């Protein structure tokens, strides 16, 4: 983060005495938040600075100007300040002022207005693992020490022992797939991360991760170099990368995304349906959920057959217990004989209240 | 047997609810993308300057969002060819997306400085970044915001 007044500093320093004039001016205050755990603001190195520096900082609208609690030293010169997590506030304008004093004279070096969410440098990804998938596919996965994975974007850098240059591929999630495999090559993979545009405007990439290797190294000689030692413990499966396949990786990721958002919900709905069907077939439970309305029509089958459908049924008056209306289907209309004899049975039932029953009985 | 089935169903339903991704985070992500689209089609020269909330505190979020949404009405498309994109993005950004709540904010919309449309939209974008970052799930429970 270059200080806007950096060009003025050499002119000002000239007037300040020998110790300051002898040392080159500090290049400006540079602040970096390491993995959002702590922050360091530095203004130079012990080799070039000889004055007595002190740092003061404040946030806009939160005015007590505070001095740095923990300075960083190099050859008995203060070269920076370390801020703990409790002293860091993001999405608030942050200002820093460095005072350089020497022989009783002081120079103030102001800094730019900074917003700390734009100065976050995540830690390098860890646990790089290669999985051998079906159909000669290979999948590289990793995890990040940064707590919010949704705020990160990653870049995978890879090269085979037959390639001359590295290939970079941007990745949004923590999975990177190669569609095909070549058993003749030996590959090296590196991954690094950055805060994406949804959480900040940074250009600070993390350091490259520890590399992971894959493939058959027995034929490579000379061109392999120190970064590709053999790792015999790793299972052997090699992949070929061509520009077409690199483009195919983005499609691969899209497919994986669709599997997660479409296939899994459909599978869970089917499972739910199976459970519902099983429940329906359990009549003991079904009767409790959906109680049956009693239908005494079956009781009259014999009568119907005997009299060929030509009979009437009346409710007898000795029924005095008050019943709920849905338990009392009262036939008040005569049964109609069907034209085809016993083939179809038509019955008209009318449900009435207990008071109506009593009235008609008397 | 039937008890087990009922229990399985209930368990299943609850787990579906719990594993559903946070809709809030997706909402802010979508709004961020929409603001980026709008930046490409908005007119920046010879236009009215707009009150731009800058880094509102937690007690002023609703006021700031309302201020941004009102300011968007005063924007104009860069040319007639981008009218459709402009209208679509403005419609999305005008929809209310924060729950209505009592808020006692010391700064009103008019108290903020007036800025050009690009800076206005940059600040709006920054507010979406803050809301998104706050709403994403944390693994270790730490927060520096």
Structure in words:
The complex is a heterodimer of chains A (362) and B (145). With 362 residues, chain A is of the alpha+beta class. Chain A has three domains: 17-118, Sandwich (Immunoglobulin-like), CATH 2.60.40.10; 123-222 and 233-241, Immunoglobulins (Immunoglobulin-like), CATH 2.60.40.10; 247-291. Chain A is 20% helix and 29% strand. Chain A contains six helices and 19 strands. In chain A, strands 5-6-2-1-10 form a five-stranded mixed β-sheet, with no helix packed on it. In chain A, strands 3, 4, 7, 8 and 9 form a five-stranded antiparallel β-sheet that branches. In chain A, a hairpin with a 6-residue loop joins strand 13 and strand 14. Chain B is mainly alpha-helical and 145 residues long. Chain B has helices at residues 2-19, 23-41, 61-72, 83-94, 117-135; strands spanning 50-51, 114-115. Chain B has a two-stranded antiparallel ribbon. The longest helix of chain B is centred in the N-terminal third of the chain and has 19 residues, at 23-41. The radius of gyration of chain B is 20 Å and the shape is elongated. The chains are: A alpha+beta (362), B mainly alpha (145). The interface between A and B is medium-sized, with 33 and 31 residues.
């Amino acid at each position: 983060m270059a200080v806007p007044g950096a060009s003025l500093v050499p002119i000002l320093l000239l007037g300040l005495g020998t110790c300051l004039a002898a040392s080159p001016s500090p290049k400006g205050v540079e602040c970096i938040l390491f993995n959002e755990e702590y922050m360091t603001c530095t203004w130079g190195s012990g080799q070039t600075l000889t004055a007595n520096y002190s740092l003061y900082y404040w946030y806009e609208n939160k005015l007590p100007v505070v001095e740095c609690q923990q300075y960083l030293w190099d050859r008995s010169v203060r070269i920076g300040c370390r801020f703990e997590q409790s002293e860091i506030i993001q999405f608030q304008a942050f200002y820093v002022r460095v005072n350089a004093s020497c022989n009783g004279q002081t120079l103030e070096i102001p800094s730019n207005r900074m917003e700390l969410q734009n100065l976050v440098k995540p830690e390098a990804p860890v646990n790089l693992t290669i999985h051998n998938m079906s159909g000669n596919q290979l999948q590289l996965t990793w995890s990040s020490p940064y707590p919010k994975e949704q705020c990160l974007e990653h870049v995978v850098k890879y090269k085979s022992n037959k390639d001359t240059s590295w290939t970079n591929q941007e990745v949004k999630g923590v999975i990177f797939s190669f569609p095909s495999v070549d058993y003749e090559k030996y590959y090296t993979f590196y991954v690094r991360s950055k805060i994406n545009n949804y959480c900040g405007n940074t250009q600070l990439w993390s350091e490259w991760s520890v590399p992971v290797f894959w493939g058959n190294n027995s034929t490579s000689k000379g061109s392999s170099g120190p970064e590709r030692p053999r790792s015999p413990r790793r299972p052997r499966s090699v992949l070929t990368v061509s520009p077409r396949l690199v483009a195919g990786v983005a499609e691969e990721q899209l497919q994986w995304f669709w599997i997660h958002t479409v296939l899994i919900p459909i599978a869970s709905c089917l499972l739910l349906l199976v459970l519902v069907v099983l429940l329906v077939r359990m009549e003991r439970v079904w009767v409790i959920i959906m109680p049956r309305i009693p239908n005494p029509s079956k009781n009259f089958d014999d009568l119907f057959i005997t009299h060929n459908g030509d009979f009437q049924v009346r409710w007898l008056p000795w029924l005095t217990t008050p019943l709920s209306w849905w338990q009392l289907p009262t036939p008040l209309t005569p049964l109609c004989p069907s034209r085809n004899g016993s083939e179809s049975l038509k019955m008209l039932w009318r449900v009435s209240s207990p008071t109506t029953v009593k009235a008609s009985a008397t | 047997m039937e008890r087990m089935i009922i229990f399985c169903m209930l368990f299943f339903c609850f787990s579906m609810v719990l594993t559903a991704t946070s809709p809030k985070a997706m909402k802010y992500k979508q709004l961020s993308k929409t603001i980026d689209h709008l930046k490409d089609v908005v007119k920046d020269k010879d236009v009215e300057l707009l009150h731009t909330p800058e880094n509102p505190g937690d007690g002023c979020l609703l006021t700031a969002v309302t201020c941004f949404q009102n300011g968007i009405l005063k924007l104009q498309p860069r040319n007639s060819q981008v009218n459709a994109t402009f209208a679509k993005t403005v419609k999305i950004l005008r929809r209310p997306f924060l729950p209505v709540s009592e808020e006692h904010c010391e700064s009103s919309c008019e108290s903020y400085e007036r800025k050009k449309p690009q800076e206005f939209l940059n600040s709006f974008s920054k507010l979406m970044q803050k809301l998104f970052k706050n709403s994403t799930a944390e693994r270790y429970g730490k927060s520096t915001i």
